[in-house]
Design a protein that fits this description.
By secondary structure, this protein is α+β, with helices and mostly antiparallel strands. 23% of the residues lie in helices and 22% in strands. The termini are far apart. The structure holds guanosine-5'-monophosphate (5GP). Pfam families: DcpS_C (PF11969).
Length: 114
């Protein structure tokens, strides 16, 4: 499926972003409006709209996103203190960009959500 989103342009380096990891499956880059000292977005290199579009065919990408996030957390020295991983999904989940993305947040003690 094609998608002309900002994240696709970042992956393809058509617009600038602070990319900290890229492999043949995913791209990780700094969030432009960080909500914590470390705020990194991790996205598949191919379009998936939201968590609702995870299926039998593409589900392995999610484990690769988690594995990469954990490695980035270790590289950024936030793994011992701790961090938070968030996927927002659609309107009620607060998803603003229609392209599956994982938020990795750390470097500060965050309020509990519940
Ligand atoms: P959402 O609210 O959809 O879960 O998260 C979208 C995230 O994308 C937000 O945290 C927002 O700051 C980030 N974002 C939006 N546009 C850009 C951009 O052009 N570059 C980067 N690096 N992040 C962006």
């Amino acid at each position: 499926m094609q998608n002309n989103s900002i994240f696709e342009k970042i992956i393809n380096k058509q617009i600038p972003a602070n990319i900290i990891h890229q492999d043949n499956k995913i791209t990780a880059f700094k969030d432009i409006n960080p909500q914590a000292p470390i705020h990194i977005l991790i996205v598949p290199n191919f379009f998936i709209a939201s968590l609702n579009d995870i299926n039998q065919e593409n589900k392995d990408i999610v484990s690769h996103m988690f594995y990469t996030a954990v490695n980035i957390a270790k590289q950024k020295n936030i793994s011992q203190e701790g961090y938070r991983i968030i996927f927002n999904c659609n309107k009620n989940g607060g998803q603003e960009i229609n392209y599956l993305h994982m938020h990795l947040l750390g470097g500060i003690k965050m309020n509990k959500l519940f």
